Amino acid sequence: MQQSSAVYLSRLKSVFRGGISSYAIYGFAIALFAVLLATAAAVMLSGAPLTFANLLAAQLHNPMLLALDVMPFVFALWGQGVAAMSADESGNASRKKSEHEQSEKLALQAEARRLEQEDALTGLANRAYFLQQLEASLGTAQLNRTRVGVIVLDLDGFSEVNDQFGAANGDRVLKSVARRLSNAVENTGAVLARLGGNSFGLSIGALQSTKALEELAERMQDVLAPPCTLDKLSLNLAASIGGAVYPDNASDSYGLVNAADGAMQHAKASGGGFELVQSAMPIEDAEMHSLSAELRAAIDEDQLVLYLQPLIDIQADEVHGVEALVRWQHPRRGFLPPGEFIPRAERAGLMHDLSKWVLRRALEYNAALRKEGWSIGVSVNLSARSLLDPEFPDLLAALLAEYDVPSEVLTIEITEDTLMSDQRRTMDVVTRVSNMGIHISIDDFGTGYSQLTYLKRLPASEIKIDRSFVTDMLESDTDLAIVKGTIELGHALGLRAVAEGIEYENQSIRLRELGCDIIQGYYMGRPMPFDKLREWLAEWQLHHQARVVAVAEAGGRH
Ligand code: C2E
Ligand code: CA
Ligand code: CA
Prior knowledge:
Organism: Salinisphaera shabanensis E1L3A
Protein name: Two-component system chemotaxis family CheB-CheR fusion protein
Distance between the termini: 142 Å
Strand content: 15-25%
Number of helices: 23
Enzyme class: transferase
Number of domains: 3
Structural class: alpha/beta
EC number: 2.1.1.80
Bound molecules: ligand C2E, calcium ion
Number of strands: 16
Keywords: Methyltransferase, Transferase
Strand order of the largest sheet: 8-9-11-12-13-14-15-16
CATH architecture of the largest domain: Alpha-Beta Barrel
CATH topology of the largest domain: TIM Barrel
Radius of gyration: 43 Å
CATH class of the largest domain: Alpha Beta
């Protein structure tokens, strides 16, 4: 009872919340007027004159009129009620409107956020968002001392799909791959993203073991196995997959993705499948002692040594240039040839730093020789990583400017397999480098999966016939035919033909007869440190001049 009167009181209060309304005043006035009219009518009907005293008397003695006196208050209350109700209604309407506007704004903000985080084609997370999420999970992993796994998956031969079936079909394939991969990692808590082009990334927090990462990679491979149908065609998909683990292989998101990418490139170069960046170190010491830390230290502390091997223009009998070949003077393991650390540096995603060091040192030496009057070229070997980096041409330009070396002096040696890894991206970088006037050389020619149509499109200046053909060319007719054929092919395409691995004089003589342009090998000079190269150059000049004089003298006697 008490409760219900409290409710009434609060309702009444709410009715008067906005003060006395005009409806209440009108209601009161109309009802009052009606009361007055009724009282006057009652006086007139009784036959009495219409005086104030008679009106008062009628009011006091007529119970009907007395009852009627309540009406102005009833109407006033009614008017106040109506006003309060309509005020409530309009208040509700405008509240509803602003609530609607607010939710629309939130929806737009959510959509903008989604577009920023999402890859437009596949609807997966995009690279930026992936790295952001990964960085966050690395933060958690650092606190909890757990591990984080990253997988980079790259479709094999995807540029051919685009070339042969068109970009629209390429997009359909990518969408289908995205769907399949999403299914494969469903309920694993992993974040899947499209990192760009035909490359996908996966990160998994609180990784229990590297086995779990391997299993995920396997599952990804399995879902890609069924052929993908494009209209009436069925297409077999394959992918190369690389995996890296925090903190074993890198300490930040970029490093981790790079390491996984390096492992993927390595897997691709060895025919596809899955590869993991390996680290035998305990997790706590991994960062300190890992190969990446060691190699980084090697770069900073000048443990690397750049050897140079002469390249001879066999037709003009001149020094054409030198090839820069890196070695590592390891504090414990001694002098290491590139074969012992380059593949591991590639897997650890360190080739960028290493190539930068090599380029810098190579240009520095070249500039020094130039000052001494030796205007010769310098060739540098580059791995696929650099050619996938769209900023690489800018780095080259900056280094050439820093050492004041003309761009034609520099030759970039790349292997056929490097070129095959992601044709579109590498082709783009290679074309830009070539447009700068830098020469492109195709190294180890004949050993990779070369495509002649690709060779035609490539802005190369030279092909380097692989050592394996040169070694046996005087004993094997097949190898001789390959060497001869390659020189002719190179010339037909307007390229210089270079032969490497010349260990005997008769090999050099035969190569000159075959029209080979440049030769390189232990017979002329082994790879050597810079100081030794200077001595070699001085001696070569001496020998060369002596030979020219001897030839002139011999000619004079006839
Ligand atoms: P490559 O580019 O094919 O280099 C030529 C290799 O053949 C060198 O081995 C060189 O020492 C060797 N060689 C030259 N002439 C002869 C010869 O007459 N007989 C024999 N038996 N061998 C000869 P090296 O220096 O051990 O380099 C091995 C590979 O390591 C190189 O092969 C190259 O692919 C890679 N490499 C070396 N330096 C670098 C670098 O700075 N960056 C990159 N990305 N790779 C490098
Ligand atoms: Ca080379
Ligand atoms: Ca070679």
